[in-house]
Amino acid sequence: MSKRFIQSINYMRGLCMLGVIGIHVGSVALLSPSPNLGLVAVLEILSRFSVPAFFFLSAFGMFLSQPLNQPFVYKEYLKRRLRTVLIPYLSWSLFYMLYVSVIGHNFTLFHPGQFIRTLWYGLAMYHIYFLVILLWFYFLMPLWRPLLRWMDKKPALSFTILFFANMIFNFYSSYIWNFHFASPILQDAFNYRLNYVVLHYLFIFLFGAFTAEHFSAVCDWLINHGLLVNLFQGLSTAGMLAAYYGIMYYKGYDALSAVFTIHQLSPVGMVYTLSTMLFCLYWWQCRPVPRAVDKVFSLLGDYSYPIYLVHPLFLALLTHLASHFHIFLRSLYIMAIYCIVTLLAIAFSIVVTKATLPRWLRICIKGK
């Protein structure tokens, strides 16, 4: 498939970015003694597709630019990808480490052992671990290509098996395994497994690669099965909400425990992520897109990467201000924080993209 810009994929980047911000603002909403369960459902449950969806989109972009039927030079590929991800990861991690240290008047993060641990597991800020997993996917690209080529022989069977195998692995990793090691290094490796073990997101990553390799065929299937796609999305959404409210009603969980249980790696969360990817492709690739939707989500998609990198800073500043002025964060304030954080992150991204910056600084901020 020829290299080209696919607008629907860009829209999905924008939507996922809104979802990621929603998850992080939702963490603030959960701090309330009596959180609004409906608002938490939107911010923390219905937005859960957005993290694995970014692996879908990343794989799509990788295999669109480096399809299986073209030569693959690992060294050149890795050089480009490391500049796009590794350099911004390091620069933003250092920035957030410095920010947290200054705010907390504690610079132990820069002690050699803690410094290495923070960078290795992506602990500088709660969102940046995503780039660590993405880097591991990049490093292992020579494995994904032959695996996808092999799965492509019988895609329906192989992806079905992979989906359920991935579901079982995620279930055990999320709910069953609870190992304790005498070695602090091994204990950290186990505790932070979600920050680097790519197996948690293997299905959605390879499905994104498959979609890029067979984009026209996938779109034809979606066009012919629009009713099924919409029904699938409705049922999976209902499943997410039923699981969230159900464990609070029947199990007595509080909202925080429910959010930690019904997440993107839960069985229903994996189904919901898959359905949302198909649903978005159907409505944004196979159907006419209103002009207003095109403008908004094109903007968000174009600037999604710097928005992702910077938005926790604005969220932290706003919550610190609210705390300083003793503002009780009711639902209205939570929604206002969401809107302000999003707008500030967009404004920052536009400025750093359009400003004339030294090349090294531009690469540090947004990888290009």
Residue share in helix: over 70%
> Which word captures the global form?
globular
Helix and strand pattern? HHHHHHHHHHHHHHHHHH
Strand elements, count:
0
Could you tell me the mean pLDDT?
94
How much strand?
Answer: under 5%
The number of helical runs is 18
Oligomer: single chain
Distance between the termini: 24 Å
Name the poorly predicted regions: none
**Helical/strand content category:** mainly alpha
The main sheet comes to: none
What is the count of distinct domains?
1
How large is the radius of gyration?
Answer: 21 Å
Subcellular location: Cell membrane
GO molecular function, one term: acyltransferase activity
Organism: Megasphaera hexanoica
Main location: membrane
Short description:
The protein is mainly α and 368 residues long. The protein contains 18 helices and no strands.
Verbal overview:
There is one protein chain. The chain is mainly alpha-helical and 368 residues long. It has one domain. The chain is 76% helix and 0% strand. It has 18 helices and no strands. Helix 4 runs antiparallel to helix 6 (129-139). The protein is globular and about 55 Å long.
Q: Which descriptors would you attach to this protein?
A:
acyltransferase; 368 residues; mainly alpha; transmembrane; transmembrane helix; globular; 76% helix; Acyl_transf_3_dom
Q: What is the topological layout?
A:
Layout: H1 7-29, H2 37-45, H3 50-65, H4 74-104, H5 112-121, H6 129-139, H7 141-151, H8 155-176, H9 184-191, H10 202-213, H11 215-224, H12 226-250, H13 255-261, H14 267-285, H15 291-302, H16 304-324, H17 331-354, H18 359-366
Organism: Megasphaera hexanoica
Pfam families: Acyl_transf_3
Keywords: Acyltransferase, Cell membrane, Membrane, Transferase, Transmembrane, Transmembrane helix
